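Final report, closing paragraph on structural work. Over the funding period we assembled a curated collection of sequence-structure pairs, and we close with a single example.
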Amino acid sequence: MKKAIIVAALAMAPAVAMAGADGDCGVGSKLFDGQKGVAPQVLAMITNGTFFQTFAVTSGTSGCRQDGVVKSNWKVAMFIDGNIDQLARDMSTGSGETLDNLANLMGVRAEHRAEFNRVTKDNFARIFPSGVSTPQVMAALKEVLAQDAELAQYSATI
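Its predicted structure, as stored:
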């Protein structure tokens, strides 16, 4: 029985990591407020998803509002996870079907596609350092897009 619980908890870990700490809602967002980089973002997401998010939303505490909008990045996460090698290849060259599909999934408009491809190529080493995982790619891509005036609007889709 203990093994089944442990296996179930481990199986849920990726979903919990995608539970989102972005914004000002949840204890994880408060604990890691102002910290930059992949590690604080992942830790904030895990903290929110594992421990406090449900209470914060239902009680209206920790910066959460009961009338807040749910944002889901699970489609982007699933796409990146299932296509991570091809996506890395396409980002390294600044073009390709997988990169085009990601841009489409994120809602990048046609007039911004060339900039999206250029920015991901120029920041390839930052988005895909060696030994990277899907949450790390997502966090780095979000950060890269947020720093570009033309593409910042798309960072919210990650």
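Residues 103 and 109 are 8 Å apart (CA to CA). Confidence is low (pLDDT under 50) at residues 4-22, 56-62. We thank the funder for supporting this effort.
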